[in-house]
């Protein structure tokens, strides 16, 4: 499936609705493999994808991760496909879906800071400027900021539990849609073939040998996840906790119009002192505010995940 289709319809394709098979086509090779579970809302995955494809380009095995991921049997099947040929493996990138949502909220805070700056420096009436500035500040501080911190605390706690989740991974304990509904479609009542049987047969074919018991095949695959894959995922998880630089670059991009306007105004000033005053008032103050905000947010999330 092409990237344009992945990012279209505001994440509708990632929620399981619509004709997914109609979007697919055969290819000789692919750039990135996106692994996800269907239990996580599509809009969260869309936020994570917007982050992924605005990072430096790389061919990766990207896991759009939520705590449900390693509990789903089809996710286990995708991991089995990935681990099947070690010589062809691409780097693993763990991308928590909550991280994309958190970045979107942080971007809203940056927009609020920009609007406050605009209200102070614009030629609006005093009353209009106050309404715009105070309103933007209240939305940023009372809505976006607390929500972002709440999501960040949850993200820190979820990643802290990832190690034990991987250490106890078992494909036999993974859940699947058909078995959880007694192999009857919940809406139509039609019989559903068992996905578990299909996946177990493939695991035996890929990881088993003649004469081996089925349990040995499962244990062999489980150990690959608990050791080989676990080490790669944990390394990637360390970078996924609170991406300070991603937050900063996102906010800097949002604040660019205000900073460019400040540079234009500085060019109209005649003395060095006036230029310096504009620089300190706009560039330095805004950038420092953003940096301090994200640093405080990171500390608050770490502290909150420990105390809660």
Automatic annotation (TrEMBL):
| Name this polypeptide is given | ABCF5 protein
The UniProt transmembrane annotation reads 43-65, 92-117, 129-153, 280-307
Assigned keywords, A-Z: Membrane, Transmembrane, Transmembrane helix
């Amino acid at each position: 499936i092409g990237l344009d289709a992945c990012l279209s319809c505001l994440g509708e394709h990632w929620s399981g609705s619509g004709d997914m098979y109609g979007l697919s086509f055969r290819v000789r090779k692919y750039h990135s493999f996106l692994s996800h579970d269907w239990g996580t809302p599509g809009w969260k995955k869309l936020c994570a994808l917007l982050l992924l494809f605005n990072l430096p380009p790389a061919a990766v095995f990207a896991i759009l991760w939520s705590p449900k991921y390693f509990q789903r049997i089809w996710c286990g099947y995708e991991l089995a496909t990935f681990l099947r040929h070690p010589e062809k493996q691409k780097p693993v990138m763990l991308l928590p879906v909550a991280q994309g949502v958190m970045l979107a909220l942080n971007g809203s805070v940056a927009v609020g800071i920009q609007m406050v700056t605009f209200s102070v420096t614009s030629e609006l009436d005093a009353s209009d400027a106050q309404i715009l500035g105070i309103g933007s500040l209240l939305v940023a501080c009372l809505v976006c900021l607390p929500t972002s911190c709440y999501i960040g605390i949850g993200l820190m706690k979820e990643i802290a539990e990832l190690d034990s989740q991987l250490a106890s991974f078992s494909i036999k304990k993974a859940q699947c849609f058909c078995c959880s509904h007694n192999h009857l479609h919940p809406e139509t009542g039609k019989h559903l073939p068992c996905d578990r049987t299909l996946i177990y047969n493939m695991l035996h074919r890929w990881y088993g040998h003649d004469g081996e018991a089925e349990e040995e095949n499962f244990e062999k695959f489980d150990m690959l996840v608990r050791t080989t894959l676990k080490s790669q995922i944990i390394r990637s998880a360390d970078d996924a906790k609170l991406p300070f630089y991603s937050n900063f670059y996102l906010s800097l991009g949002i604040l660019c119009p205000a900073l460019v306007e400040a540079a234009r105004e500085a060019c109209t000033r005649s003395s060095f002192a006036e230029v310096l005053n504009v620089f300190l008032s706009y560039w330095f103050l805004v950038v420092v505010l953003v940096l301090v905000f994200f640093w405080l947010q990171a500390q608050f999330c770490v502290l909150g995940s420990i105390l809660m």
